[in-house]
Amino acid sequence: MFGLGAAGIAAAGAGAIAAHSLLQEPPVAHASSASDPVPFYGGHQAGIVTPAQDRLHFAAFDVTTDEKAELVDLLQEWTAAAARLTQGREAGTFGAVGGSAEAAPDDTGEALGLPASGLTLTIGFGPSLFDDRFGLAGRRPPALADLPKFPGDQLVPEISGGDICVQACAHDPQVAVHAIRNLARIGFGRVSVRWSQLGFGRTSSTSRAQATPRNLMGFKDGTNNMKLEDAALLREQLWAAPQDGADWMAGGSYLVTRKIRMTIETWDRTSLREQEDIFGRSKGEGAPVGRKNEFDPVDLAAMRPDAHVRLAHPSAHGDAHLLRRGYNYVDGSDGLGRLDAGLFFIAYQRDPRKQFVPVQMSLAKADPLNEYIKHISSGLFACPPGVEDAGDYWGRALFA
């Protein structure tokens, strides 16, 4: 899941795809500069095909209330706050200093004076939300099936899963942290943070206007990622459709997260030739084996049979694709002089059962990169369509 960035799905069926392709695609939300706001309202949530920002704060929450009405109220409050925050405003009406001196402020204040910085907030609902607490069991989408245990997984339950996730992406880390902090503050008594992850240095480009970034192994990552300019491909393989089995998810997408720790020190002692053979690309230019340029066609026959690019290539998985927008992370050291570092993998798709699962199963069984990485957390979330206007809220159709 590192070097290729496009692993995909045999789409749900030619008829379904053709019908979905006739839908009018809403404009893509993006900022004109790094400091500008990204539009919040629209048919799809921002933060999916939005050109990937440089910083991430991702949080998963457990719902602590058993009252459906309280959960709905929270989602309405969160949506109103998100609409303000993404436009560079404070989280509440009175902000950090405008209210009563005797009351807690409506905003924590650490982003005062900072621009919107391209902030996007994207919400998703985990499989555990569809238990018997809120009467949602019958509304769980078929595509939100639990991920299987992959060979080699070393998942830590405390940093996996969650009832709800919120992905905050921005060009300023303080803006992203501020957003999650304020949503957690608003949710006090109704949700608690299960786990969170900071990320830097995006590891995928989601627009052709962006250069391909590098992961912490030094290789260009996500060369063949789906891009926001690929409108037909996005309709087929990114956005859920009404006929997929959950009407409330139409226009939404399914999110998979994986925290992948790298044994950086071992990798750094590996020869350049071995590194390039493992990936199937050159380290400098990012060209596929036997080619000169990054975007030259891949010659699978020219690389070793278990090369990462070859195992993850769409031709091996029914021409399936993912839209990736992961981030590097460094969480200090482990006390033994080794960096606790790696990739926080994020991928959106129309159906993880047909996209992420077969690709990851192939990689888990045979990828030589497995000698240098281990998967330590996992998440799966259904990200509903966008919020249409100020009278709408995140997940409204699910609770209707």
Automatic annotation (TrEMBL):
Main location: other
InterPro entries, per database record: Dimeric_a/b-barrel, Dyp_perox_C, Dyp_perox_N, Dyp_peroxidase, EfeB/EfeN
Superkingdom to which the source organism belongs: Bacteria
Cofactor remark from the record: Binds 1 heme b (iron(II)-protoporphyrin IX) group non-covalently per subunit.
A GO molecular-function descriptor: heme binding
Dyp-type peroxidase C-terminal domain mapped to chain residues: 212-387
GO terms of biological process kind: iron import into cell
Protein name: Deferrochelatase
Species of provenance: Planobispora longispora
